[in-house]
Structure formats: structure tokens, C-alpha cells
Amino acid sequence: xxxxxxxxxxxxxxxxxxxxxxxxxxxxxxxxxxxxxxxxxxxxxxxxxxxxxxxxxxxxxxxxxxxxxxxxxxxxxxxxxxxxxxxxxxxxxxxxxxxxxxxxxxxxxxxxxxxxxxxxxxxxxxxxxxxxxxxxxxxxxxxxxxxxxxxxxxxxxxxxxxxxxxxxxxxxxxxxxxxxxxxxxxxxxxxxxxxxxxxxxxxxxxxxxxxxxxxxxxxxxxxxxxxxxxxxxxxxxxxxxxxxxxxxxxxxxxxxxxx
Length: 259
Prior knowledge:
The protein is an alpha/beta fold. The chain has two domains: about 5-200, 2-enoyl-CoA Hydratase, Chain A, domain 1 (Alpha-Beta Complex); about 205-250, Orthogonal Bundle (Lyase 2-enoyl-coa Hydratase, Chain  A, domain 2), CATH 1.10.12. About 50% of the residues lie in helices and about 15% in strands. It has helices at about 30-45, 65-70, 75-95, 110-115, 145-150, 155-165, 170-175, 185-200, 205-215, 220-235, 240-250, and strands at about 5-10, 15-20, 50-55, 60, 100-105, 105-110, 120-125, 130, 165-170, 180. The strands form two sheets. The chain has a six-stranded mixed β-sheet, sandwiched between helices. Strand 2, helix 1 (about 30-45) and strand 3 (about 50-55) form a beta-alpha-beta unit. Helix 4 packs across helix 5 (about 145-150) and helix 5 (about 145-150) packs across helix 6 (about 155-165). The protein is globular and about 60 Å long. The model has no long low-confidence stretch (mean pLDDT about 95).
């Protein structure tokens, strides 16, 4: 499927999704958010795809929401816009395949919120992060008040939102917002190397691990461990479990089929 604001490229078992509005630093308008939801849904259904990488064209990952579009919204329209963003961010978060953010430049406002919805984030040394919505008279509307608080703590989240401070990639790494920082010219090579390593694992195991972590973090420890037990045991019904253990015993690489 063709998109106006996204580029989709398959590289082996990895799908690369590029936000492609460089003339506005990849600002997310309604159409782009809708396309992102459609794209990741299609990629989830594609059995040839094991991992998904999100990145941006030009100098930005995503510089935020499209303010020119957002500025004229009524409260009802703003609610719909926020709800759309929440649905797409949750879709990414709950996707049954790992999603990696390759942050090549500015990731502000909605851009940081997209990063927060991904499983892993690798950033160029040139990347910048921030939640500067308060200077616009609003708050983050796509989940940052909740996902950032859970990831980096409430105090750091409040500081980022209350001050609107833009932080560099090193600071983002230090506070736990992202997984690693690499030289700009090495960003995509490092990202695809990680994606390939992940793709070698059992795809059903990755889906269950992601579900256990995402759902378990909001449960009490006993219930979360019960969830892990259920997901762990369910994998013993799969061909992948039998193949993975057989390959280990035979000292060879497993050939997973996702069944």
C-alpha cells in the first residue's frame, strides 16, 4: 500500500517505516497518524516481517504534532485527535512484533511520544528530545504523561513537561528514556544489526515476552508472575518451542516458523 507521508521498505525480515514530511520536520498531522496506524497494522499481519524500525527523513525524527492543523481545533476535535493518537501509540506498544525507534534528529512532543510507544530506542548523537507542549498552552496528548512517568519516573517527567526543556541524546540515555546512543553515521547500521539479532529469536516467544512485560508492569507482582506462567506454558503448544529446543540439543541454529 502506498502512503502520502510514510515510506515503507522491507530489508530482509525488517520493515523500515520512514516519516516523510521533511519540509515540516515530519510534523504529525491527522493523515500521518492515520497512515502510521494503517502501516503498522499491515506489517503486523505480514508473516515475513519479524521486526519494525521507525525513523524520519531529513533532520528530524518527528518534530511534534502539526501545530498549524491543531491550532484551530475545537475541544471536541481536540478530543478526537488525542484519542486517535492514543489508539495508534497503543497499537505500536501492543504490536506482536518488536518495534525499534531509530531517532535521527528532533523528537519533540508527539515525536517523543512515538519513541515512548516503541519497545527499544536507539538515537543518533544529533537527536533531541522534549515535551514542550506547555509553552503552547496544552499538555502532551498521546500518552507521554503516563508512559514517560512509568519509564523514567514521575519527577523527571514533571521536570521535562513543566520546563519544556529540550534534552540531547546523552541526557535522554542517562535518564533512561532511550536504550543507546550511537554516532549519527552509524545509526541505521546499528539499528538494523539489533533488528537482525532480535529477528533470530522465536517470534512467538518475542510476542509473549512483550505481552508479559507490557501487561505485567501494571499488575501486582503476584498477578504479573501468574501471567508469565500462563504465557510461558502456552508456548509449549507451539512448533517453535519444539524446534528451538531440538536445535539447541543438536547444536544448530533454529529455523522458526512462527507457529
